[in-house]
User: Fold this.
Amino acid sequence: MDKERIYLKTERIKEYFVDAAQEILRGEGFPALTVRNLSARAGYSSTTFYGYFENISDIIYLCLERFSKECKVMVEDAVKNKKINENTIKTKCIEFVKYFIQYPGIFELFYTSNIRNLNNNKSSIELINNLFLEIVDSDFKELLKNKEYKTSTEIKQLEKHLISTLLGLMLLYINRRIPNSYMEFNKLLKEQIDRCFV
Assistant:
């Protein structure tokens, strides 16, 4: 029973740290995620942090996993019970972008922060690089099966074009407010997504 209690306590404290990290990343962004800030937000000392984690990289990876799941859920909820077609994929693209526009700190963590120095950087980079593909890949496979696309090469090219377009648009909007308003951005986003499918 003592082992179980210790395990539960350990997991609970880890949760406090991960929850605190997510709050910091959502609100203040990646640069604000330090052991000191994290420990203060979680309500523990830095010493306690190091008792449960080797370093900040461990927390970042857990946050990346959680944010990826959140994004996928948001996207899937938007297309629930809809027939798979190009419009479904376009909707998924828009929802993917909405998630990151809503949380610029998460966008920063995923797409503009230098995470090469993380201990588990290979896993983190794979998780980031595969997020969009995991969201749209099954839909594209279904369209290929239904002969709406001729080859998987054609689909891979379209996926690359889409992710490059989406990331570029988000980068300009989040960092430079180009275009000036969210309404203009949304219009441009839809136009650019449509162009990818031409």
Remarks:
- The chain has a mean pLDDT of 92.
- Residues 1-53 form a domain with the Arc Repressor Mutant, subunit A fold (CATH 1.10.10.60).
- The chain has nine helices and no strands.
- Residues 18 and 62 are 7 Å apart (CA to CA).
